[in-house]
Automatic annotation (TrEMBL):
It comes from Nocardioides zeicaulis. It catalyses: Hydrolysis of terminal, non-reducing beta-D-glucosyl residues with release of beta-D-glucose. Pfam families: Glyco_hydro_1. This is Beta-glucosidase. GO terms for molecular function: beta-glucosidase activity.
Amino acid sequence: MTTRPFPSDFLWGAAAAAYQIEGAVDADGRTASIWDTFTRVPGAILDGHTADVACEHYDRMPHDVALMKQLNLGSYRFSVAWPRVRPDGGPVNRAGLDFYSRLTDELLAAGITPWLTLYHWDLPQALEDRGGWTDRDTAHRFLEYAMSVHDVLGDRVDSWTTHNEPWCSAFMGYTSGGHAPGRREGVAGVVAAHHLLLGHGLFVEEFRRRGGTPENGKAVGITLNPTVVEPFDPAREDDVEAARRLDGFHNRVFLDPLLLGKYADDLSLDTEGMLFEGRRWEDFVQDGDLALISAPLDFLGVNYYHPEAPAALPRDVEPDDLLGSRIQHSPRPRESPYPGGGVVFPRTGRPTTDRDWEIDPDALTRLLVRLEQDYGAPPIYITENGAMADDVVVDGAVHDLGRQQFIEQHLHAVLDAMDRGVDVRGYFVWSLMDNFEWSYGFAHRFGIVHVDYDTQVRTPKDSALWFAEVAAANGLPLA
Ligand code: FCB
């Protein structure tokens, strides 16, 4: 077979996150996270689903690792649940940590590189009760938790990621309220974002102090969900302005402090007069914070699904012509995740996945080139990319050609970026298996492996079998 090859050391993986697959929410001393609480809020999750059981990965882990091996995965991206390791944000719970120790050993024995994320959104509820990410102290609690994970896994895990998509933690959690903890408090998302970044910086500092360097085979980074933001109508000044503003609140609010050591001036102008508990930027961004946050990274994780094309309000547009209108959402009201709101997302005419997300692989190439050109980004790993589909099992198989094509097109887009000089070193498909998709519960399937939630039977979909071949061949098939 002729292939379009990847570099010989390219990392092929699949990703998942603790809360979305583990279940066992009361096992071995674990206590509630903000998501356990949020799933109990009426209307917060589609069909009232909870992740109490999810994929039972906590109990089925060895079987799931065997499946990864069967699929030729070189790496598995997982997250550690803070409320298992330090229930209620309190003392270390050895029994909870043991699960990740066993998982690590199982992966290493299978020849699969563990790719660990410290925070994929499951803050202990007790810490949210003390202010959550709008409280600066949470960054210090994060450091404490992260170091207790490092104490136990630092010898065996080489790749450490502080946060997954802090944009979602901050702006979906504290501005929109569509995610836990469900707060709809405007510019609170900006304050939360800064404290998430501070937690990241504190960990990087300590990680280095403990000898965590590439020379010692250890790497630290963060995963963002940066995207391409382009005006819906480039001829309209208000759309161009909306795109600038969104680029600020989606991309630059994280990329600038991490990679340039500053916050852009337009962010503070855009939030003028919007104070969270009376705090101005200079109140929550303290001396020394930006130096910590901008310490050099060994890699940048990029999660990419779709671009954004905002149109400024007021706008004459039919509700059916807005993206997202073709799927059912959880009924609890939410605000725009962008402080100040004022935008909608009309269809641009691109095809969409069953999630009603527009498909644009070329935007991924443009995004990667921008990260290189504007930021001189460190080596990049695509830590999430994939598609939701309404999959069904027929005669023991799932024919998800749409997902396979989505992944294939995006892998070509990655190679296109690499051809243009971007240093991309790996690709993790989202997700290893169907799982609890946040406010959409179990209705949205993203896995390359199908999960029957009644029987917990796992069925590799056609996309998984295809992905396994691509990983083995280390290249994309060419016709
Ligand atoms: C990302 C999340 C991941 C999953 C995918 C579909 O925003 O990091 O947990 O929900 O979207």
